[in-house]
Design a protein that fits this description.
The complex is a heterodimer of chains A (155) and B (119).
Chain A: H1 14-23, E1 26-30, E2 34-36, E3 40-47, E4 53-75, E5 81-100, E6 106-113, E7 122-123, E8 127-139, E9 145-154
Chain B: E1 4-9, E2 13-14, E3 19-28, E4 34-45, E5 49-56, E6 61-62, E7 70-76, E8 85-86, E9 90-101, E10 107-115
Parallel strand pairs in B: 2-10
Antiparallel strand pairs in B: 1-3, 3-7, 4-5, 4-6, 4-9, 8-9, 9-10
Classes of the chains: A mainly beta (155), B mainly beta (119).
Chain lengths: 155, 119
């Protein structure tokens, strides 16, 4: 089903439309927007429609974003290639813990402990750490569902 | 000729809000426009480095640096100073940078500052 329209005043960005499709029926939120390392964060998973969803799980995920120098080849004309460099931001999961959730409609609570030696939330110029609660579910047909909610981890 | 200096600190570890007291000993004299100490919170990846926070002392001395002279300074860590952290692809840390501003390449003496949680 196509969800975005281009009518005046009703425009929905294609990425936002995709996000809505991916998260339909599944939501996740943190009970507290800020927690300290070593403390617990409570994930509230809301399943509005469990129909067609399977293997639902919720996790706490920290992603590290880091800038690196990328070297490639560029073309000055049809035949001559020259080395080119560019700054790119790569990412990798720095920490993740997952827990299964019952496939029933309603709100479920899952608590996770943030390890004391895990990264703290940080948004920098060349290095960042982003913490999110993630709920995901497998669908028998179509795109899998995934909902995300950012929260802050203090040092 | 560029000057050379040694950096001495009153302690090895500091908590947020504490003052770092140090002395810069000039071991070799040389031309300099200004001498300054800068406390920095740095981000570093394998390929890039950025300064996220910079706390300068202001000029400690202006003009030629003479061997045998010394300069004292004090710089306070912010009360909400973030800790150091080393990850798989990068690092966050505090560093003290003593810089001699020169007409050519500046001279630096850098020292990492270890921070501890407030007790």
């Amino acid at each position: 089903m196509v969800e975005f329209s281009f009518g005046k005043g009703r425009e929905v960005h294609p990425l936002e439309a995709l996000r809505r499709r991916l998260t339909r029926g599944l939501e996740v939120a943190a009970s507290d927007q800020e927690v300290r390392r070593g403390e617990e964060v409570e994930a509230l998973v809301t399943i509005s429609s469990a129909r067609k969803l399977a293997d639902i799980e919720v996790g706490v995920v920290c992603t590290e974003y880091y800038d690196e120098l990328h070297t490639g080849r560029g073309y000055t004309d049809d035949t001559t290639s020259t080395p080119t460099t560019s700054r790119r931001t790569s990412d990798e999961v720095a920490h993740e813990t997952w827990s299964p959730v019952e496939t029933v409609s309603g709100v479920q609570s899952v608590r996770f402990t943030i390890p004391p030696d895990a990264p703290f939330s940080y948004h920098g110029e060349c290095l960042s750490f982003k913490w999110e609660l993630v709920a995901r579910a497998r669908r028998s047909r179509g795109l899998d569902r995934q909902a995300r909610s950012e929260f802050s981890v203090l040092p | 000729m560029s000057p050379r200096f040694q950096l001495e600190l009153d302690r090895e570890r500091y908590a947020p809000g504490e003052t770092i007291k140090g002395t810069i000993q000039v071991t070799e004299g040389g031309g300099s426009r200004a001498l300054e100490a800068i406390l920095e919170y740095k981000e570093e990846t394998a390929d890039y480095s950025e300064v996220a926070i910079s706390i300068p002392s202001g000029p400690l001395h202006e003009g030629e640096l003479t061997a045998g002279t010394s300069f004292e300074f004090e710089l306070a860590l912010p009360p909400d100073a973030l800790p150091s952290y080393k990850s798989r692809h990068g690092e966050l840390y505090w560093e003290l940078d003593v810089k001699s501003d020169e007409s050519g390449r500046d001279t630096h003496e850098r020292r990492r500052i270890e921070t501890v949680s407030p007790s």
